[in-house]
Here is the input.
Amino acid sequence: MPSMTVLSTTAVPDHVRGALTRWMIEPTPGLYVGTLSARVRDELWRVVSASIGSGAAVLIHPEANEQGYTLHTAGERRRALADFDGLTLVAFRPEEYQELANGA
Here is the structure.
């Protein structure tokens, strides 16, 4: 059954953006929203994560868990996903937190 999917990208190659706009709308640059089947969503994510280069991407879609959704990330990001008793939390990476705390 198709479900709403949100995909956010940063600095991805143009061919990835083109592939995403075939299946989803782009209401703002780098943000894609669509109603996709799990098969299409997983294939798009495979293409995006394999072609990310120096960019980054986050995929959010419904899941049968406590939060009602799941997150996937690809590429280098300032934030990392952390599982906390079954809940997905987002945290700054420890090394970057130290740099921020020291005023670097």
About this structure: The beta strands are 3-10, 25-28, 31-36, 56-62, 69-75, 79-84, 87-92. The helical segments are 14-21, 38-50, 94-101. The radius of gyration is 15 Å. The mean pLDDT is 88.
